[in-house]
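Bit of a strange request maybe. I'm writing a small parser for structure token strings and I need a real example to test against, not something I typed by hand. Could someone generate the tokens for this chain?
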Amino acid sequence: MERMITYRLTRQTALLLTFVLCGCRAEELVCTLAGDLTGLTVELSATPVGPFTVDIVIPRSTPSLPVSYTYRCDGSQLCRTKTVMFPGLIATDFTVRVTTSLGVRETTPPRPVRYTDSYPNSTSCDPRSTTATVQAGIPE
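Reply from user aminoacidic:
Good idea to test on real output. This should exercise your parser:
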């Protein structure tokens, strides 16, 4: 009498077997479409009322010629926010200048500003994002 051998295949085993037979690597499956988030984020102490401007002022070797990156809000609901992102900006020595109808307030974060790397699509997938967040006050 002939005896039949039966193999039970779990879902995980079937998936692993499919990867092996297809030549796929598991890392390739975890890559998503998350984009690069590199840049500097400024968290304001409060959301300004009305129009406001946030400047990142980076000193240069000639103090009279600083480099500045600007976020402007005309006061509409679409741009009023407490968190302002400066995409692509990586600077370690700068001043944050917030201008509202009440005046100007400058904040110098502790130096050097520390950036961290993260991998929104996993360490096996590009891109690598380099980010930092600093706090800044608004005019009162």
